[in-house]
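G., the chain you wanted modeled:
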Amino acid sequence: MPVDQDTAYRVISRLYFVLALGAMLGGLQVAAALSGLRGMWLVPSARFTRLLGIVLIAMAVSFFLTAPLWIDGPWAAGSVSSDSSQRLWGTAEWRDLPGAYNINDIDGGLSGTSQAIYFPIAFVVALAVSLLFGAFSVRVLRKSLGGQSGAMDGLELLKSTSYPTTLKRSASLALTGWKSEVTAEFDPAKYPHGVPARLWRRR
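Predicted structure as tokens:
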């Protein structure tokens, strides 16, 4: 069956989004486990979080590369080696996989612009999922964490608190901290000749 360009684009874009989402989510889990950012763990265990991240990456890549074997698309067996405009609709064979996605964007393939759009969207979704499940992981680990967040700020807070708590505390520190920093910078006791004299000396 001949290939419809719009249908081909939808199929390929969905598969690419699954690849990007799985790889992003897996990468975030590995990084969060190694950094101890419990507020981003999908499961309340560093070892299993790291293992889960590796599995997610492997599954995403494997799914994307082998999807033409069972998902109908512009890679019907026997037509992959031909020009992308002459592709037929159907499932591929193992020997067709290396060139299955080699389709010009004007024939329904995924353009660089489309990839640049789907990639950050996948990252945002992966980050949101990590932070959502991370809140659950922190709740499960709350007893063992105790008061570890006392001296932490910024991203370090995710080691012992959920994202909403981290955001609230970081915003509070930012709102109160700038006042003390400005006061310290322009303290009259340090600069008896006035702020203008200090600024002039910096020149």
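Residues 5-35 form the longest helix (31 residues).

Shout if anything looks off.
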